[in-house]
Write a structure and sequence with these properties.
Blueprint: E1 4-7, H1 24-35, E2 43-46, H2 53-56, H3 62-73, H4 89-108, E3 114-117, H5 139-149, E4 156-160, H6 167-173, E5 179-186, E6 208-213, H7 219-237, E7 241-246, H8 263-280, E8 285-289, H9 295-311
Parallel strand pairs: 1-2, 1-3, 3-8, 4-5, 4-7, 5-6, 7-8
Helix pairs in contact: 1-9, 4-5, 7-8, 8-9
Protein name: Histone deacetylase domain-containing protein
Organism: hydrothermal vent metagenome
GO molecular function, one term: histone deacetylase activity
Length: 315
């Protein structure tokens, strides 16, 4: 095994949301567990640089970015009913996006082929001009657009296995044939988007796949979807990098949803994505944390996810 990059900065813990489900204890559990994992010496911990505003503007409007900065710096505590902020949230959000951008650049430039971005706040609900669902900036969407706009990649795949549909990511690329977005999520759950018939628009029709999962679906059902639909679809698309919106709230122990994945299921999904990455894009895979609200289950699921990535790492 060779090294996987872990992008992390303590500023993520200073995004203080109090007793909100998306809180610093989540990330503390992940970091502590990774540092004591059997493969801890195979991880390369990297401190990212904050994102440039011009990179955030690849997905979000200038007006929205200024609004978020002004709200936070003026002492706002909520951006919407679900999204809590504090004075350090601006710095944390810039660093979270910067981590994903740095990881994408490093992967494409063959420095660290595989990476996990241990970041917060999460991103996949954030729209071009709206914060929602605990999310400020859409970290993975910005990373994908950075890959196509700044690094010249022609095809990027995003797989989102968070229990909630990534409405912001879908909308960012719904008319963009260079990015294939695939989501597995609990049907009829927040935010109410992600129907199976939402497949993209205009010349991007056929580059958006939603797979609503039934309550209590477990490892077997998820892995069947990967084997029968997700992996064959991505193999045909042949992306130049695979990105993962890695939410772990479909875990059986998660308090905010009703699916029944285990650590073994997350390992199995990761294994399939790594196999495909080796086959079609030189092993390039960048994953970024989204949801997951039971600290123990979250930490063990991330360990399973990163452990599988290590088995495939090169460089």
């Amino acid at each position: 095994m060779s090294h996987v990059a872990i992008y992390y900065d303590p500023v993520f813990l200073r995004h203080d949301t109090g007793s909100h489900p998306e809180n610093a204890h989540r990330l503390e559990a992940i970091v502590s567990n990774l540092k004591s994992a059997p493969f801890a010496d195979k991880l390369s911990w990297i401190t990212p640089a904050p994102a440039e505003i011009s990179d955030i503007e690849l997905v979000h409007t200038s007006e929205y970015i200024r609004h978020i900065e002004n709200e936070i710096k003026s002492g706002a505590q909520y951006l919407d009913a679900d999204t809590v902020v504090c004075p350090m949230s601006w710095d944390a959000a810039l660093m979270a996006t910067g981590a994903v951008v740095d990881a994408v650049r490093s992967s494409v430039e063959d420095e660290h082929i595989k990476a996990f971005c241990a970041v917060r706040p999460p991103g996949h609900h954030a729209e071009a001009d709206k914060a929602m669902g605990f999310c400020l900036f859409n970290n993975v969407a910005i990373g994908a657009r950075y890959a196509t706009s700044r690094l010249g990649l022609g095809k990027v795949a995003i797989i989102d296995f968070d229990v909630h549909h990534g409405n912001g990511t879908q909308n960012a690329f719904y008319n963009d044939p260079s990015v294939y977005y695939i989501s597995t999520h609990q049907e009829y759950h927040y935010p109410g988007t992600g129907l199976a018939n939402e497949t993209g628009a205009s010349n991007a029709t056929g580059t958006n796949m939603n797979i609503p999962m039934h309550a209590d679906d477990s490892d077997e059902e998820f892995l069947s979807q990967f084997d029968e639909h997700i992996i064959p679809t991505l193999r045909k698309f042949s992306p130049e990098i695979i990105m993962v919106s890695a939410g772990f709230d479909a875990h059986v122990d998660d308090p905010l949803a009703g699916l029944s994945l285990t650590e073994e299921g997350y390992a199995g999904m990761t294994r399939r994505l790594c196999d495909l990455a080796d086959e079609v894009c030189g092993g390039r895979l960048v994953s970024a944390l989204e949801g997951g609200y039971d600290p123990r289950a979250l930490a063990k699921s991330v360990e399973a996810h990163v452990g599988e990535m290590l088995k495939y790492s090169i460089g």
